[in-house]
């Protein structure tokens, strides 16, 4: 199912980003560009993150410098290898 119609991002893509280490809405936005157009999908993204955290039992916030999927870092957004 599409979560972000504007950027054509599906629920499975967001869940894969979460499994790969994206643990904030910003990290998911940096990876998939979801939520950057109209913003109506941000609530669904938040709900998916909360569900993943409650399922895994991980309620910690990411630390600065923690590696995120697709070569991103939490808080910095810098590309790796450039």
TrEMBL record:
Renumbered residue ranges of the record's region Disordered: 52-82
Cofactors: [2Fe-2S] cluster
Keyword Ligase part of the UniProt annotation: no
Biased composition (Gly residues): 73-82
Segments forming domain BFD-like [2Fe-2S]-binding: 2-50
InterPro entries: BFD-associated_ferredoxin, BFD-like_2Fe2S-bd_dom, BFD-like_2Fe2S-bd_dom_sf
Gene3D superfamilies, per database record: BFD-like [2Fe-2S]-binding domain
Alphabetical keyword list: 2Fe-2S, Electron transport, Iron, Iron-sulfur, Metal-binding, Transport
Record has Metal-binding as a keyword: yes
Domain of life where this protein originates: Bacteria
Secretion signal, residue range per the UniProt entry: none
Family in the record: Belongs to the Bfd family.
Name of protein: Bacterioferritin-associated ferredoxin
Biological source species: Methylocaldum szegediense
């Amino acid at each position: 199912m599409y979560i972000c119609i504007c950027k054509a991002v599906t629920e499975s893509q967001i869940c894969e980003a979460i499994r790969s280490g994206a643990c904030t809405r910003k990290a998911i936005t940096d990876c998939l560009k979801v939520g950057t157009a109209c913003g109506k999908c941000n609530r669904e993204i938040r709900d998916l993150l909360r569900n993943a955290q409650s399922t895994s039992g991980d309620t910690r916030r990411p630390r600065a410098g923690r590696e995120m999927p697709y070569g991103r870092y939490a808080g910095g957004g810098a590309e790796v290898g450039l």
